[in-house]
Amino acid sequence: MPELSEVVPAGGRLRREPRQARSRARLAQILAAADAILVEEGVEALTIRRIAERAGVPVGTLYQFFPDKGSVVDEVAGAYIAEFDRLVDGLVSSAADGDWSDPVGRIVDEFVALYRSHPGYVALWSGRHLSPELARADEANNQLIAAGVQRVLAEHAGLADVDALELAVRVAVRVADSLLQYAFAVSPDGDEAVLTELKTLLRLYLANHIQQAT
């Protein structure tokens, strides 16, 4: 799994796209600095001046790529969303890989592992209420995850890929999002008791949905 500093942003609100290797490396350095601040100091510390200081570049260099702090947040969030996209694609493509007798347990464990390996993501989403950029990124991420989980359940759990499943998955993703945030607020590695309760809740919800569909 690539580090955030290795992810080349797709553009979005970048002031200019890096063309040369040196510029691409400088941009990755800035994003890595933003990620480190998130992990060590929290989203409140994520300012243009602090990012430049941590990256070891002049503030003017940062403004060559980003018009404002919100655009930095967008790029960092976009890199995390790309990680979740790859995870979901991997789950969907692993039809014959491993044990799918407990799809809820497997899916939750995969996402918990991603949370644990990317503490900056946890810090970023814990402050999602602080700016419109974070709120937009959070909604985009939930939509992406819901669509992917729906594909996983249709593929591996034998559930019909219908409108009722779409709604159930969207609800389940919102519930899981809240409880995952809570689990990682209680413990940096995710509180096991809370994660166990999350799995129990989702298994019961999924079982109820299957019962209603049959």
Determine Rg (CA atoms, Å): 19 Å
Strand coverage percent: under 5%
Count of spatially separate domains: 2
Listing every helix as H and every strand as E from the N terminus to the C terminus, the arrangement reads: HHHHHHHHH
CATH A-level architecture of the largest domain:
Orthogonal Bundle
Structural category is mainly alpha
Tell me the number of strands: 0
Task: Describe the protein's topology.
Blueprint: H1 21-41, H2 48-55, H3 59-65, H4 69-93, H5 103-117, H6 119-126, H7 132-156, H8 163-186, H9 192-213
Commentary on this structure:
The protein is mainly alpha-helical and 214 residues long. It has two domains: 4-65, Arc Repressor Mutant, subunit A (Orthogonal Bundle); 69-213, Orthogonal Bundle (Tetracycline Repressor, domain 2), CATH 1.10.357.10. It is 72% helix and 0% strand. The protein has helices at residues 21-41, 48-55, 59-65, 69-93, 103-117, 119-126, 132-156, 163-186, 192-213. The radius of gyration is 19 Å and the shape is elongated.
